[in-house]
């Protein structure tokens, strides 16, 4: 597949936290790939901001070392490196902003993207200083990463602080799951085809499963992760966003507010999750094996040796109280150190109301539509067919497979490539609006609070498994099973 380039205006991208992991692992490779594809206009510049004192040469050397493996060819790489500069600036102090302003003012009228790849505690102070330095011009946009707060109150505070400087239309709250190809394909599948929409409700859908399973552990992020846990790290944002896209009503257009207006209705319709009805299972991995290698347990990975109740796995049964989805459970699960890296959405349709076939034909498996986000993006529809050959009728469930890699050739752009350029373009459709973030926290807050006030320990699961047995029981109690054939 050759990505089609829609030109964007020349821009300056200022990355706060430019020497950090997110920048070096995701943002710079994404910008480089867009540059290789010719989508970054000639005068565009990228400024890294961090407290580290280094000149442009030293920063380019760092990028060469960390990002250079993505090099497509020398010419494109050198063109990209020439766009980079570094400014030493402490976002929580007043000094040094005039230098940034001077550099940005060298090329007036460019779109300005301020990407805050920093700790959320710095979002407010950084925006305030951008405002004070006169940098929050009408062409400016600010991008913030999750987590936006750790509960509703802190999210509101961060949103208020950003909102004092940047209008909602200039604020891009990134959820990189929304930039994944298959996630956008989910919208195409639902609204560019007439086939599924008539079936997309409690009349024909039995239940939905959304899984985001990872094999990695803490990856050196213990300080953050231990204060967050799987509910805040993955459910509040990524999984709820996927749930919204599965459940939303047809928006009137693929316009930012039309889509987001429908997502917020889903969030408002989520039934409360109580601890008491066992609708939520928290787990924590112990020592085991991941991808064939022995790996330590979560507690051992924490360097401070403290005992922690943070969940590295969570499974939830969620109800949506509206006309379309009443009675259809959405089972969500996510975890670290699971058996496989797989993210998928499974729509399980109801069984046929009556079988006309003799017992000898075999059982009838209800249809399943599996939307794979990763790996091997694609869509599989499981259908019942007759096994070929004479000798009576035998039925078999077979997959009708659409593998994107086989259907579309070429490289699949990473989520950040699409999202970064959407920011430059001023298209917030795939970003979270303030009310969405706050509605998601409102829904989760009570559950998180009651867990934190309690003393129950998360259920232990072995690294390399599919999570605690209680998570299997959560779905099996309802006579259903997790879809694990990707494992
Ligand atoms: C991030 C989480 O938002 O998403 C990480 O903070 C997680 O903990 C990551 O590993 C998963 O993203 P992906 O794209 O690898 O599924």
Verbal overview:
With 487 residues, the protein is an alpha/beta fold. A nine-stranded mixed beta sheet has the order 16-15-14-13-7-12-11-8-17, with helices on both faces. The model has no long low-confidence stretch (mean pLDDT 92). 34% of the residues lie in helices and 21% in strands. The chain is globular. Strand 1 (11-16), helix 1 and strand 2 form a beta-alpha-beta unit. The chain has 14 helices and 17 strands. The chain has two domains: 11-145, 3-Layer(aba) Sandwich (Rossmann fold); 178-409 and 433-486, Dihydrodipicolinate Reductase, domain 2 (2-Layer Sandwich). The site of 6-O-phosphono-beta-D-glucopyranose (BG6) has 4 residues, from loops.
Properties at a glance:
single chain; 487 residues; Rossmann fold; Dihydrodipicolinate Reductase, domain 2; 6-stranded parallel β-sheet; 17 strands; binds 6-O-phosphono-beta-D-glucopyranose
Which helices and strands appear, and what pairs or packs with what?
Elements: E1 11-16, H1 21-36, E2 45-50, H2 56-67, H3 74-83, E3 84-88, H4 97-105, E4 111-116, H5 123-132, E5 140-144, H6 152-163, E6 171-173, H7 181-191, E7 205-213, H8 222-247, H9 256-269, E8 280-286, E9 288-290, E10 293-295, H10 298-301, E11 313-318, E12 330-335, E13 342-349, E14 368-374, E15 378-386, E16 395-403, H11 404-407, H12 415-425, H13 434-453, E17 459-462, H14 469-476
Parallel strand pairs: 1-2, 1-4, 2-3, 4-5, 5-6, 7-12, 8-17
Antiparallel strand pairs: 7-13, 8-11, 9-10, 11-12, 13-14, 14-15, 15-16
The structure holds 6-O-phosphono-beta-D-glucopyranose.
6-O-phosphono-beta-D-glucopyranose is lined by residues 212, 214, 233, 343.
């Amino acid at each position: 597949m050759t990505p089609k380039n829609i030109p964007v205006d020349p821009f300056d991208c200022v990355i706060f936290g430019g020497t950090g992991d997110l920048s070096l692992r995701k943002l710079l490779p994404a910008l480089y790939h867009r540059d290789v594809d010719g989508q970054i206009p000639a005068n565009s510049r990228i400024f890294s901001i961090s407290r580290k004192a280094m000149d442009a040469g030293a920063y380019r050397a760092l990028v060469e070392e960390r990002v250079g493996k993505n090099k497509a060819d020398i010419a494109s790489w050198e063109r990209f490196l020439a766009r980079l500069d570094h400014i030493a600036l402490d976002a929580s102090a007043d000094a040094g902003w005039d230098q940034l302003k001077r550099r940005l003012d060298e090329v007036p009228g460019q779109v300005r993207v301020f990407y805050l790849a920093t700790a959320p505690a710095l979002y407010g102070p950084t925006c305030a200083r951008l405002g004070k330095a006169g940098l929050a011009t009408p062409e400016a946009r600010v991008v913030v990463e999750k987590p936006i707060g750790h509960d509703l109150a802190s999210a509101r505070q961060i949103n208020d602080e950003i909102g004092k400087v940047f209008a909602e239309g200039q604020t891009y709250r990134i959820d990189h799951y929304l930039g994944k190809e298959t996630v956008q394909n989910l919208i195409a599948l639902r609204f560019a085809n007439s086939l599924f929409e008539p079936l997309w409700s409690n009349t024909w859908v039995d239940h939905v499963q959304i899984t985001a399973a990872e094999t990695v552990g803490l990856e050196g992020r213990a300080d953050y992760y231990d204060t967050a846990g799987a509910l805040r790290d993955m459910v509040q944002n990524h999984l709820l966003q996927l749930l919204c896209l599965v459940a939303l009503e047809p928006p009137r257009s693929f316009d930012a507010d039309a889509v987001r207006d429908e997502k917020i209705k889903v969030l408002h319709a989520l039934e409360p999750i109580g601890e008491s009805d066992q609708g939520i299972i928290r787990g924590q991995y112990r020592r085991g094996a991941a991808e064939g290698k022995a790996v330590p347990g979560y507690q051992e990975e924490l360097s401070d040796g403290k005992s922690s109740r943070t969940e590295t796995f969570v499974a939830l049964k969620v109800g949506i109280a509206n006309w379309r989805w009443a009675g259809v459970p959405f089972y969500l699960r996510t975890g670290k150190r699971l058996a496989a890296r797989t993210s998928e959405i499974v729509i399980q349709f109801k069984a046929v109301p009556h079988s006309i076939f003799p017992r000898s034909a075999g059982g009838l498996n209800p249809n399943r539509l599996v939307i794979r986000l990763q790996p091997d993006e694609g869509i599989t529809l499981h259908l019942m067919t007759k096994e070929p050959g004479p000798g009576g009728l035998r039925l078999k469930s077979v997959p009708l497979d659409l593998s994107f890699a086989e259907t579309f050739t070429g490289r699949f752009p990473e989520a950040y490539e699409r999202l970064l350029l959407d920011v430059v373009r001023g298209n917030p459709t795939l970003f979270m609006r303030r009310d969405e973030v706050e509605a998601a926290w409102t829904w989760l807050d009570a559950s998180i609070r009651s867990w934190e006030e309690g003393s129950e320990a998360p259920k232990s699961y072995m690294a390399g498994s599919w999570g605690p047995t209680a998570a299997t029981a959560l779905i099996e109690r309802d006579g259903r099973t997790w879809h694990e054939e990707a494992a």
